[in-house]
């Protein structure tokens, strides 16, 4: 078992230095680790903790906690604490590891908060250490989104160690956190035993070499894990050999419903393995192949399987895969015989008039709903064209509207998650 306690540091007035090296003593905390009891006044608790530890008060956090207090007074439960650093309301000073430590002290005694979104802040491996330590004992937090915080390999190891102990966290987003090969392998190893995590995002780690070692470990994990529903391995440098490792695992796995292998190096040869496994796999519902290079041959392999064999896949994204008209038309034809496939995303490929007519027909006949694709037909001088529409599997992953309903009742909204208790996907705003 990894011991994160060996890799943290304390310096200054009770705060850690940017690079932890020894066991910390954050804020000169009491030896018993006690925190003020939260009784529905989170704003007051945060203020008092900041005063006690001589920590500068973050007005944005104070504002968010006030809103949460109001929700708690209404009797709300399962609340997600949204302190995203890319919010328009966020002041210049984003959340740091020091703020994060205080937040988790509050969450420790607040059972009504089940989600925490702190993406795009300034939380480093120090903040990851405190979060991981507190999550070892936390039994109420179900959803944690750390996207864009540079916790790096060391911070990833802290979270992997935490998952050996925590039995309540269900969804963990560590995308764009600069994880390293060691921490990705650690997550794959831990998830062979962890039976709680249902969704994990390991997008864009910092990997070196061409051996696809991390993909081999992830494939082994999928053979052993029968609880994971959603896996994101975008920008993992996965090639055809790597996708074969994942497909071999999918013959045995009967839980995974969402596989994101976008932004990798998968070609038409890799889609042969995907097409074969989709003939027998009846669990996978969402497949994201965006920004690979499957081309016409790959699109045809998938189309043949979808037309004749698979009846479980609901959403397929082949955005920017260098597919030309022949392959795109083949995909459209498969939808005519496949009643299950409802969401198809094709923008960024090479459209000819046959493609434009084929998808226009699907939309006009109602087989493909406008909200379930990223193209819209229009006519100029008697010729059919397709325009891009802002839809997709990750529509609200990097941004959300500042007013109105971000997630509607459309099928496309099912690819998102608002609260961890809902049966929706991890990638959301």
UniProtKB/TrEMBL annotation:
Keyword vocabulary terms for this entry: Repeat
InterPro entries the record matches: Leu-rich_rpt, LRR-containing_regulator, LRR_dom_sf
UniProt keyword annotation of Translocase present: no
Start and end residues of each stretch annotated as Disordered: 1-35
UniProt KW Repeat keyword: yes
Record's protein name: Leucine-rich repeat-containing protein 34 isoform X5
Source organism per UniProt: Mustela putorius furo
């Amino acid at each position: 078992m990894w011991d994160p306690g060996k890799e943290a540091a304390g310096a200054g007035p009770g705060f850690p230095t940017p690079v932890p090296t020894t066991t910390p003593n954050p804020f000169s905390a009491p030896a018993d680790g006690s925190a003020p009891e939260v009784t529905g006044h989170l704003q007051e608790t945060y203020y008092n903790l900041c005063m006690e530890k001589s920590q500068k008060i973050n007005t944005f956090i104070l504002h968010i906690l006030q809103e949460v207090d109001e929700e708690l007074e209404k009797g709300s439960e399962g609340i997600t604490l949204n302190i995203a650093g890319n919010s328009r309301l966020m002041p210049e000073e984003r959340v740091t590891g020091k703020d994060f430590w205080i937040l988790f002290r509050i969450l420790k005694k607040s059972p009504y908060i089940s989600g925490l979104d702190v993406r795009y802040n300034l939380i480093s491996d120090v903040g990851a250490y405190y979060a991981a330590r507190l999550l070892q004992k936390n039994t109420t937090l179900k959803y944690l989104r750390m996207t864009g915080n540079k916790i790096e390999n060391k911070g990833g190891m802290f979270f992997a160690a935490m998952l050996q102990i925590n039995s309540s966290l269900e969804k963990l987003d560590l995308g764009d956190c600069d994880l390293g090969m060691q921490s990705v392998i650690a997550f794959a190893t831990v998830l062979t035993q962890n039976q709680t995590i249902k969704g994990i995002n390991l997008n864009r780690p910092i990997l070196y070499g061409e051996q696809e070692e991390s993909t081999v470990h992830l494939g082994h994990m999928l053979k052993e894990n029968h609880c994971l529903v959603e896996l994101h391995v975008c920008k993992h440098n996965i090639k055809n050999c790597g996708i074969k490792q994942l497909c071999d695992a999918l013959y045995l796995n009967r839980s995974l419903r969402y596989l994101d292998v976008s932004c990798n190096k998968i070609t038409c040869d890799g889609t042969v393995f995907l097409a074969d496994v989709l003939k027998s796999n009846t669990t996978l519902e969402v497949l994201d192949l965006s920004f690979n290079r499957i081309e016409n041959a790959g699109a045809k392999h998938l189309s043949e399987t979808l037309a004749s064999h698979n009846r479980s896949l609901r959403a397929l994204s082949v955005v920017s895969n260098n597919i030309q008209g022949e392959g795109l038309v083949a995909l459209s034809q498969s939808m005519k015989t496949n009643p299950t496939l409802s969401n198809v995303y094709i923008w960024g490929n090479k459209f000819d008039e046959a493609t434009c007519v084929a998808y226009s027909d699907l939309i006009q006949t109602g087989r493909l709903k406008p909200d379930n694709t990223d193209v819209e037909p229009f006519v100029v001088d008697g010729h059919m064209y397709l325009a891009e529409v802002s839809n997709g599997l990750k529509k609200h992953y990097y941004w959300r509207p500042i007013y109105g309903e971000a997630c509607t009742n459309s099928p496309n909204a099912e690819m998102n998650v608002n609260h961890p208790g809902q049966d929706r996907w991890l990638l959301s705003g």
